[in-house]
Structure formats: structure tokens, C-alpha cells
Write a structure and sequence with these properties.
This protein is α/β, with parallel strands linked by helices. The chain has twelve helices and 24 strands. A hairpin with an 8-residue loop joins strand 8 and strand 9.
Length: 423
């Protein structure tokens, strides 16, 4: 599917932020691991999160899926070995978390996914699991999926490099309560994307699991214990809302977004600071955000180490801003659905953007026109290019339906909020 986007005159109205993808993944999997029945209210149902929910069922959990909640019967830390290979589609979060969780089942579990998922690095995680008594390995011996996990999680001490993916850390922590012995995990080197681990710890606490976290040492200690069932309401997603916020910042707008928790652990709430520094008016009141855009932005320097998913959004903003925008700190974005630094550079260049691709980011000189771009089957690229279309018009996005991975309602919501948008 391709999307054609024409320039919009204005963005205005009130909208609820879609539910958090990151919290939905974690809530589904903790509820499945828990003792008792949990109700996860207002979850995000997208391609990615359904990969997690369907996997919970494959591991033996009963799921009652309704429009605005999922009722999940926990397996008390004793998953069954799935009857078949688990196809996780494009969901890196599901892959990483379930690699540790699968060790709690007897027998062997095989995790795979689409072409993109089979390029995701996994060696750091499988190496870190080995000292904990977990045998997990790549079928092709290249450190990438398909991954086979043998049942057994003894516990003990291990370390992991912090500069590839915070999901590796969340994965070990989420399975650790059901290890036979205590688990001690040390993060070595540069600890990127810390807010995602904070989200994991926040939810583990809500499901009544205690983790001792020494922040100065970047070390974690988890005693054997049990997740307890919980009714949990999923908060709004700053990652998905970033596209609404960026669009409103780039053109004439008066937009209110509800269900964005002001003291959220989500690192991507940094988007509010970014558009403010670029010259947009931002008001935060209770759990809603108001954006008033004048249609003119100025370039900035920004480090996205703790919010790498914002890279395509900020790159799009930089392309539409006056002057230079320098994005740093996101070398780990090269290991996402695509090498996001490179794919952003390639596609923005097609739209006349002058830029330099750096090892850890991009330097962008504002100035962009219409054209044809590819999504590279990356949901965040597709939505970022849509924003540019609203500003300059005549943007054609190939394979755009990949937005279903995280924000299935994205085009419909944008159409409702924009005037003059000839999508």
C-alpha cells in the first residue's frame, strides 16, 4: 500500500494519545507470567503487541481479548513449550523479552519472524544468559533469529553490554523472578535507552515484584518471587504521539492530546522539549498536552541517546526547520527495524534535504520538497514522512501500511485533525 499526502492548512482539535506500545508489551507478558487473572485495560492492539499477546497464548495462557481490555489468565511462571515455532512478525520487543521467558518452559522453543526481524542482533543477550544456566542460540550461528531456547533458568551472576539494546536488560529482569536462584545483572559500558528499563521496573513493581537497582553501579538484584495478577490501565504513548506533536509543531495548529501522563517514565516524552526548543508553544496540564504551532521552526542540536525511536520524527522536523539540526547519540538506532540513521539519510535526500550521515546521527540543513520515498518496512519512517507531506505536499510513501505495527489509526486520526489535507 502507498500513501499520498498533500499539504494541510491547519491541524486542530482534541485527540486521545494511542495506548503505549512499550507498556502494552510488558503488561501482557507480566500478566501471562503472573499468578491469577489480570485485566489489562486500554491496551494497544497493533501488529507488534498482538505478537506478544498471541505468544502468551502459545505458552499456555488463556486470553479473553475484548475491544478495550484483555483478560489474561497467568501461568504462575510455568509456561508450556509452544506446539510450534513462534512467528513474531516484526516485533523486536517480543523477540527479546521472550528469549529469556522461554527458558522457563521445558523443552525447546523456537522464535523467528519476518525478514527484518531476522536481522536483529541477539548475541549479546544469548551470551549474557549463558552464565545464568540458559542455553539460547542462533540456528544460523550468526547471532540473529531464528533463536532456539532450551528450558532451564538457574540464575546466578552475569553482565551485559549496555550499548546495543535496553530490551536485553528488560528481558533478563522480567524472567528473573522465576529463576531457581537469585539473579545479579551488571550493565557494562554506556547504558543507553535507560527510560525503557525504568518502564520495565515500574511495571514489575505494579505486578508486585521487587528489584534492587543500584543506579550508580548499573546493577540489578532479583530474588526468586512471583508476579501477582493486577488490573492495569495502559497509559498513552509518547512515541506514537510524537508524530501528532511534530505535525502540529510544523504547521499552523491548535492541538490538544489527552492521556499523556505528565510524570511518565517514557523517554519519548522528550519530544515536548524538542519542539519547544525549535520554537513551538507547548502547554502541559494534568495529563494532557496542548501544542500551538505557527508553521516555523528553527534547527537545534539534540542528543537522542535515551529516546532513539524519536530519530525519524526529529529528522523530519529538522528537514522542515530553518538552519541546521544536529542529531547525536543514536548509533544504536542502526539496529532497529532498519538502520534508521542510514535509511533516514537516503530517503530525506530524495526530498532535496541536504544532510550528512554521521556515525551516531545526522546533521540536517532545513529545506525539503515533495517526492517519492520508501518506508523500508519501518513504521516510524512511514509516519515521519507523512508529517513532511502535511508541510510541503506531494509526498508519496511506498509500503506505508507498516504503520499498523504501532499506530493502526494513524492516517484516520490525521485526516480528522487536518484541514486542506488531500491524502
Amino acid at each position: 500500500m502507498e500513501l499520498r499526502v498533500q499539504a494541510a492548512d491547519k491541524i486542530e482539535g482534541t485527540v486521545n494519545a494511542p495506548p503505549s506500545k512499550s507498556y502494552t508489551h510488558r503488561a501482557f507478558i507480566m500478566a501471562f507470567l503472573a499468578e491469577g487473572v489480570s485485566k489489562i485495560k486500554d491496551p494497544l492492539y497493533s501488529d507488534d503487541t498482538l505478537a506478544s499477546l498471541n505468544s502468551c497464548q502459545a505458552f499456555g495462557s488463556h486470553v479473553n481479548q475484548q475491544n478495550n481490555y484483555s483478560e489474561i489468565t497467568g501461568i504462575n511462571g510455568k509456561p508450556k513449550t509452544p506446539e510450534n515455532v513462534l512467528d513474531l512478525k516484526n516485533s523486536g520487543t517480543t523477540l527479546r523479552i521472550l528469549t529469556s521467558v522461554a527458558s522457563l518452559a521445558e523443552g525447546y522453543t523456537v522464535l523467528t519472524g519476518d525478514k527484518s526481524l531476522r536481522t536483529r542482533p541477539m548475541q549479546d543477550l544469548t551470551d549474557a544468559l549463558l552464565p545464568l544456566g540458559v542455553s539460547a542460540f542462533s540456528t544460523r550461528n550468526n547471532g540473529k533469529p531464528p533463536i532456539i531456547i532450551k528450558g532451564g533458568f538457574k540464575g546466578g551472576e552475569t553482565y551485559i553490554n549496555g550499548n546495543v539494546s535496553s530490551q536485553f536488560i528488560s528481558s533478563i529482569l522480567m524472567a528473573a523472578p522465576y529463576a531457581e536462584n537469585c539473579v545479579d545483572l551488571k550493565v557494562k559500558g554506556n547504558f543507553i535507552s535507560k527510560p525503557y528499563v525504568d518502564m520495565t521496573l515500574d511495571l514489575m513493581e505494579k505486578f508486585r515484584v521487587n528489584v534492587d537497582y543500584e543506579r550508580t553501579e548499573n546493577s540489578f538484584h532479583v530474588e526468586p518471587q512471583t508476579y501477582r495478577s493486577k488490573d492495569y490501565i495502559v497509559e498513552g504513548d509518547y512515541s506514537s504521539a510524537s508524530y501528532l506533536i511534530a505535525a502540529a509543531a510544523a504547521i499552523d495548529s491548535n492541538l490538544t492530546i489527552k492521556n499523556l501522563v505528565h510524570d511518565s517514565k517514557q523517554g519519548d516524552k522528550f519530544i515536548l522539549d524538542i519542539v519547544k526548543h525549535m520554537g513551538c508553544e507547548v502547554k502541559v496540564k494534568n495529563n494532557e498536552v496542548k501544542i500551538v504551532g505557527q508553521g516555523s521552526l528553527k534547527g537545534i542540536e539534540v542528543n537522542l541517546q535515551n529516546a532513539p525511536d524519536l530519530l525519524p520524527t526529529v529528522a523530519a522536523l529538522g528537514a522542515m526547520a530553518e538552519g541546521k539540526t544536529k542529531i547525536t547519540g543514536v548509533e544504536h538506532a542502526r539496529f532497529k527495524e532498519t538502520d534508521r540513521i542510514h535509511t533516514c539519510a537516503v530517503e530525506l535526500s530524495k526530498l532535496g534535504v541536504l544532510l550528512t550521515e554521521n556515525k551516531d546521527g545526522l546533521t540536517i540543513t532545513g529545506g525539503v520538497h515533495g517526492g517519492v520515498v520508501k518506508s523500508h518496512m519501518d513504521h516510524r519512517l512511514a509516519m515521519a514522512f507523512y508529517i513532511i507531506g502535511l508541510k510541503v505536499g506531494n509526498i508519496q510513501i511506498e509500503n506505508a501500511s507498516v504503520y499498523n505495527v504501532s499506530f493502526p489509526d494513524f492516517p484516520n486520526i490525521m485526516k480528522k485533525l487536518t484541514t486542506g489535507n488531500g491524502t
